[in-house]
C-alpha cells in the first residue's frame, strides 16, 4: 500500500509539472520526457519536492564557492536558481548556474564546495545509519547474553549472514578486519537504494561519482591488503608458458582496474535504469495526452517500482560479495595450502611404510 501511495504521489507531482503553464516562448514545445527524467535523476543545487497550482515546494541549498583572489562566497541557491525551462540561471556575486554547473561570470577559476541535493542526501543517509546502528549497538549492550529485541532483532540476521556467507567464505581467517568496511558498504548502498525510491528523494546510488568513490575504496583496500602471492600471480602467473607471460602480465594488470570499474558501472547503471523506466512509464500519459493510458502506465510503473525493492537489496549484496572476493584473492596465503598438501603426502607415505 505504501508503494502504491508513493507511485501515486509521484504521478500527481509529474502530472502537475507537465500541465504547468509554459513560458511565452515555450508554449508550442509541449512536454519533454527526456528533460523531465534527467531533471529528476540528476543532481541539483536545490531540492524540489512538489509542484502545485499554488506554487513549488523547494528547499534551496547553500552555494559555497572559493575563487582565488576573491575569497569565499556563501549564499542561498535561490539567488541564482534556474528559471522554469532555462538552462542558465540568474547571476549573483559574479556566479551563475549553467546546466546546474556553478560557473564564474567572468570565466575565472573557482572551486565549488556547494551542498547539492546528492550531498544533502549523503549527509542525511549517514545520519540515518548512525542513528540506526548506534541503537543496534545499544541493544547489544543492554541485552547481552539474551535474545535480541526490537531493531536489533531485524538487523542481526543480516549482519550474521554477511559475516558467515560473504566475509568468512571469501576472505578466510582474516575476515574480521574487513567486516566494518563490508557492513558499511552493504548498508550504505541498501539504505540509499531504498531512499532513492521515495518520491522527491536524492538519486545517490545512481550518481556515478558516488559509485566511483565506493569502487576506489575497494581498490585501495584490496591493494593495501595484498601479499606477495597476489603479485606473484599477476607478474608470474602459474602454468603460463614464458613466451605468453608478457601478455598475461598486461591482462592481469588491466584486470586490477577493470574489477572496481565494473563495480562502479554495475551499481550506477542498475539503479539509474530503474528510475528511468518508472519515469518513462509515467511520461506516457503526457506523451499520448490521454488519461486513458493512466491505468496501464500506473500498473507497469508500480510493478517496476516493487521490482526495484528487490534490486535495491540485490545490488548491495552483489557489491559486497564481489568486494569480499577481491579482498580474499589479495590476502590468500597460497603457501598454507601447499604446506597442508605436503603434510598430507608425508603422513600417507609414513603410514604406508609402517
Automatic annotation (TrEMBL):
InterPro entries referenced in this protein's UniProt entry, alphabetically: ATP_synth_F0_asu (IPR000568), ATP_synth_F0_asu_bact/mt (IPR045083), F0_ATP_A_sf (IPR035908)
Keyword vocabulary terms for this entry: ATP synthesis, Cell membrane, CF(0), Hydrogen ion transport, Ion transport, Membrane, Signal, Transmembrane, Transmembrane helix, Transport
SUPFAM superfamilies the UniProt entry points to: F1F0 ATP synthase subunit A (SSF81336)
Name recorded for this polypeptide: ATP synthase subunit a
Gene: atpB
Organism: Hymenobacter artigasi
Signal peptide (residue range): 1-18
Top-level taxon in the UniProt lineage: Bacteria
Main localisation: membrane
Keyword Cell membrane: yes
Function: Key component of the proton channel; it plays a direct role in the translocation of protons across the membrane.
Topology of the protein relative to the lipid bilayer: Multi-pass membrane protein
Membrane-spanning parts: 119-140, 178-198, 204-224, 244-261, 267-288, 300-327
Amino acid at each position: 500500500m505504501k508503494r502504491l501511495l508513493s507511485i501515486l504521489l509521484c504521478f500527481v507531482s509529474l502530472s502537475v509539472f507537465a500541465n504547468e503553464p509554459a513560458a511565452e516562448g515555450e508554449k508550442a514545445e509541449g512536454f519533454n520526457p527526456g528533460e523531465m527524467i534527467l531533471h529528476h535523476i540528476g543532481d541539483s543545487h536545490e531540492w524540489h519536492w512538489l509542484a502545485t497550482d499554488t506554487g513549488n515546494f523547494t528547499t534551496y541549498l547553500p552555494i559555497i564557492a572559493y575563487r582565488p583572489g576573491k575569497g569565499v562566497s556563501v549564499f542561498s541557491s535561490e539567488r541564482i536558481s534556474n528559471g522554469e525551462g532555462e538552462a542558465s540561471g540568474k547571476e549573483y556575486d559574479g556566479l551563475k548556474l549553467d546546466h546546474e554547473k556553478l560557473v564564474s561570470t567572468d570565466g575565472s577559476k573557482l572551486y565549488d564546495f556547494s551542498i547539492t541535493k546528492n550531498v544533502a542526501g549523503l549527509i542525511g543517509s549517514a545520519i540515518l545509519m548512525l542513528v540506526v546502528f548506534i541503537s543496534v549497538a545499544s541493544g547489544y549492550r543492554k541485552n547481552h547474553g539474551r535474545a535480541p529485541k526490537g531493531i536489533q532483532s531485524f538487523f542481526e540476521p543480516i549482519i550474521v549472514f554477511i559475516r558467515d556467507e560473504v566475509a568468512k567464505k571469501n576472505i578466510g581467517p582474516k575476515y574480521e578486519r574487513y567486516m566494518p568496511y563490508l557492513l558499511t558498504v552493504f548498508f550504505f548502498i541498501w539504505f540509499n537504494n531504498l531512499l532513492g525510491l521515495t518520491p522527491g528523494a536524492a538519486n545517490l546510488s545512481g550518481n556515478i561519482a558516488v559509485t566511483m568513490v565506493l569502487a576506489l575504496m575497494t581498490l585501495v583496500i584490496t591493494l593495501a591488503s595484498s601479499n606477495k602471492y597476489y603479485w606473484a600471480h599477476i607478474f608470474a602467473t602459474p602454468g603460463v608458458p614464458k613466451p605468453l607471460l608478457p601478455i598475461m602480465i598486461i591482462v592481469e594488470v588491466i584486470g586490477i582496474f577493470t574489477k572496481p570499474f565494473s563495480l562502479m558501472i554495475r551499481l550506477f547503471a542498475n539503479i539509474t535504469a530503474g528510475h528511468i523506466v518508472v519515469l518513462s512509464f509515467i511520461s506516457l500519459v503526457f506523451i499520448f495526452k490521454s488519461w486513458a493510458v493512466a491505468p496501464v502506465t500506473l500498473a507497469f510503473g508500480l510493478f517496476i517500482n516493487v521490482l526495484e525493492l528487490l534490486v535495491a537489496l540485490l545490488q548491495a549484496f552483489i557489491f559486497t560479495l564481489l568486494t569480499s572476493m577481491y579482498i580474499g584473492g589479495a590476502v590468500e596465503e597460497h603457501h598454507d595450502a601447499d604446506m597442508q598438501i605436503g603434510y598430507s603426502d608425508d603422513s600417507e607415505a609414513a603410514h604406508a611404510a609402517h
